[in-house]
Design the sequence.
């Protein structure tokens, strides 16, 4: 008998398992693919390793701008792949050791809800029953595709396969310009591949601030990425030496198509049909205060939860929330208003809270302030002036949201995360001093402008 059985060893699942030691609970963690889930094995970590390789290559290629003489860099794709695999393997080992040190019983297999607990099907087909005081569903998500783009792992792939390409593709079509699509377009563009990026909506990064999307659009174009927005693609024609992607009256001929149109929850085959659990387009409905589903004693966290951000760090927070409620009976809700989103392109794009349009749609009377990177000393020194900071605040009220585009945006957004979470007034936040010269001075300038007393 375990106090809690967790199905899924991704960020939401393993965070819940690790956090349980604070309450002295006995935990079983069931995972069929290895601990770490999509984030560690096929998502966040390996993708950012490739993006780091691309950034280093881009920086070395521009070395002469900084007075450094070097030979033209070459991409060692096999070396970069080996480094990526080494990083993932090391983190998997570390996570496994940490789970073991916390007394978590990690069980390899497929978990399915059964009366009073969970049935586990081992890789060899053997089954066992685990009794549980509570169950946390944390099965995560999987890539989706669109009609006419059947994933074959060779000519038409998802990010899962692309992260393990053995050779750099010369010509790539990326279908979908959300975070995943833009990140691949950025890294492949930096490394010299011919990239065609398609987005059915009118801007890349749909749902983010239009100003941020325009900056990234411009910077991707500088890398040679051919971007087509407001364009739908017709079914692909897979040929002997490549793929033809038709759109409108034209077509792009490429070596491989990367489909990046979103992810679907992994909820089939886990026994939900025999419970009271509610689904919303396949996603599990959970109480945002506790992460509890409509089935007593069953919780849900991570990508499979309806209406919450499909982000690893949101999964961490939901796992902590669920385990806290299981152990104490008290709610510890996630503050989704202040969950940051980072797109690890070059330059990075990061946001937190409401966009200007979302704030207006919610009935807020807003005031907007922004500051570009072109006059920021550190950004000029780094040769990374294509960026901006945008702040959205309630008129005569607190900061509601912010977006940063530029070098280190993913790090800088956390300063603005606190202003949103603590409902800071622009004038209050503007009173604090930013070191000079730093890229973060752009945030200070934007706060001053939002407070009605701009400096530069």
Sequence:
């Amino acid at each position: 008998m375990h106090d809690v059985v967790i199905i899924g060893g991704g960020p939401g699942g393993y965070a819940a398992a690790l956090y349980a030691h604070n309450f002295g609970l006995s935990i079983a963690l069931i995972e069929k693919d290895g601990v770490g889930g999509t984030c560690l094995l096929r998502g966040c970590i390996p993708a950012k390793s490739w993006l780091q390789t691309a950034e280093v290559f881009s920086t070395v290629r521009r070395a002469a701008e900084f007075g450094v003489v070097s030979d033209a860099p070459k991409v060692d794709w096999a070396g970069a792949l080996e480094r990526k695999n080494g990083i993932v393997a090391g983190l998997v080992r570390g996570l496994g050791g940490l789970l073991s040190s916390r007394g978590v019983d990690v069980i390899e297999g497929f978990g399915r809800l059964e009366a009073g607990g969970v049935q586990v099907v081992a890789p060899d087909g053997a089954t066992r029953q685990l009794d549980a005081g509570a169950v946390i569903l944390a099965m995560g998500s999987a890539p989706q595709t669109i009609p006419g783009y059947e994933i074959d792992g060779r000519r038409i792939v998802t990010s899962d396969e692309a992260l393990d390409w053995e050779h750099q593709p010369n010509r790539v079509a990326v279908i979908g310009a959300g975070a995943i699509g833009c990140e691949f377009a950025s890294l492949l563009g930096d490394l010299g591949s011919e990239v065609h990026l398609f987005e059915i909506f009118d801007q890349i990064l749909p749902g983010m601030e239009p100003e941020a999307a325009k900056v990234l659009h411009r910077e991707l174009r500088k890398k040679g990425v051919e971007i087509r927005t407001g364009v739908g693609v017709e079914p692909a024609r897979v040929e002997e030496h490549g793929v033809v992607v038709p759109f409108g009256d034209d077509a792009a001929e490429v070596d491989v198509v990367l489909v990046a149109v979103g992810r679907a929850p992994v909820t089939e085959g886990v026994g939900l049909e025999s419970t009271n659990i509610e689904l919303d387009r396949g996603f599990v409905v959970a109480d945002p205060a506790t992460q509890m589903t409509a089935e007593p004693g069953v919780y849900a966290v991570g990508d499979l939860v309806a209406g919450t951000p499909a982000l690893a760090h949101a999964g961490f927070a939901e796992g902590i929330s669920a385990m806290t409620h299981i152990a104490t009976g008290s709610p510890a809700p996630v503050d989704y208003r202040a969950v940051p989103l980072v797109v690890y392109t070059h330059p990075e794009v990061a946001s937190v809270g409401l966009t200007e349009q979302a704030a207006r749609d919610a009935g807020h009377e807003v005031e907007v302030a922004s500051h570009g990177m072109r006059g920021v000393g550190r950004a000029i020194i780094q040769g990374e002036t294509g960026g901006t900071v945008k702040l959205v605040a309630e008129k005569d009220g607190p900061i509601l949201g912010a977006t940063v585009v530029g070098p280190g945006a993913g790090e800088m957004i956390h300063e603005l995360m606190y202003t949103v979470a603590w409902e800071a007034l622009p004038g209050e936040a503007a009173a604090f001093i930013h070191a000079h010269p730093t890229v973060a001075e752009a945030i200070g300038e934007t706060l001053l402008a939002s407070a009605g007393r701009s400096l530069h």
